[in-house]
Amino acid sequence: QVQLVESGGGLVQAGDSLRLSCAASGRTFSNYDMGWFRQAPGKEREFVASISGSAGRRSYTDSVKGRFTISRDNAENTLYLQMNSLKPEDTAVYYCAASNYRAGQRDYEYEYWGQGTQVTVSS
Length: 123
Prior knowledge:
It is a single chain. With 123 residues, the protein is an all-beta fold. Helices cover 0% and strands 51% of the residues. It has strands at residues 2-7, 10-13, 18-26, 33-39, 46-51, 58-60, 68-73, 78-83, 92-99, 112-113, 117-122. Strands 2, 4, 5, 6, 9, 10 and 11 form a seven-stranded mixed sheet that branches. Strands 1-3-8-7 form a four-stranded antiparallel sheet, with no helix packed on it. The chain starts with a strand and ends with a strand.
């Protein structure tokens, strides 16, 4: 089992950058595929980005390609999401998630979830 704690959210203006972190504890971090999801008010949770255990495979939703970068530091048991050129439509609660198996863009592929961190982008 793994425990996940997100941090780094906040209130920023359009065009600004933020870096989210997700600290993992428990079993060997590199064994898990990891993902970032987000949920805006009144909307369903959606996939943002994913990364395999070795970081050799990454995936992004189209709306963040070229602006967001997912990365991980297995020595530090931490997942990151670098978000640049933020837009008001990026406003959401951002969640990190972990999977014991090969995981992609569907939330049901992930067994473990953090509590979320709020990102608000003003125009």
